[in-house]
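Ex. 9. Protein: N-acetyltransferase domain-containing protein.
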Amino acid sequence: MDPVVAELGDARLVVHGTDADLNAVVLRLLRTERLADTPVGYVPSDPASEVARLWGLPTDPGRALDLALSGDPDRVSLVRNDVGGVLVGLGSLGPVRGVGYGDDTVVLRGQASRIEVTPDPDNGLGLLVHVVHKRLLTRKVRTTSARAFQLGCLPVQVESDGVAHPRPMGKWTWYRHTEDLRLVRGVQ
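Predicted structure tokens for N-acetyltransferase domain-containing protein:
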């Protein structure tokens, strides 16, 4: 991918694929310090794309391609983790038992069925933390906006943009990166 990025100049980069594919491209842009000057268009191959849902992107291939090629780029929150990865759509873990903080606020003490983290689509503090408690017939979700989410827990499987981390983790952090992603999602 590096030769393609090197030849881009001021042109936009269009990714056609899954949320995991977009994640990999954005991570490469971050590592090559091209994040700030490269607009990224996204044409999801999966109609159930969490990135498309989160950022209001079309999932119809024709409309998505038109937008990716001619829409305006917007600056959107880019979320990082403490093991060198990024999150562009949905991060999840669970079931989980431990203690989690959204900035200085305790968002979990005990157990939850699932924790989901997304970039904040309103570009507030940076990310949204959804703590999900499922009971027999009910589902309770508590959402917190934060710049960072830190969790210490019994080992749990972590997933970012549809890709599972290679091993269960006993601690995990997601936080807003200092630079935003230039995602093409504006009106044509």
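Check your answer against this statement. Residues 98 and 110 are 5 Å apart (CA to CA).
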